[in-house]
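**Paired protein data**
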Amino acid sequence: MKSYFRIEGRLIGMNDVIAAYCSHRMKGHSLKRKETNRCSFEILRSGLRDFKNPVKVTIRWVEPNNKRDIDNIAGGGTKCILDALCETGRLQNDTRAWVKELHHIFPTPEPANPHVMVDIEEV
């Protein structure tokens, strides 16, 4: 059975994370914490269930345009999403023992409706 949650807007990209950590480590930590908290809020708001078995995760990154590279998009946001799943207790851990597959999908941009859709399925 698949479960999902949605995050409105874009998540930070890897370039944002690198720039923040290069300017000051606490700035980088603060940025990552802010985005992880945002993901946690959406997980809790969605009523996402706890997973007792390993999972496969599919993340659909709906951007407002094609300006960011896909490795930049996925690199920053994936860490926040997986950490939030663990922090909210929905996933016991984000190690390879628990996250068996991780898929990224980059559909056609939606300028008026950027969002991130996370589908989770026990395997």
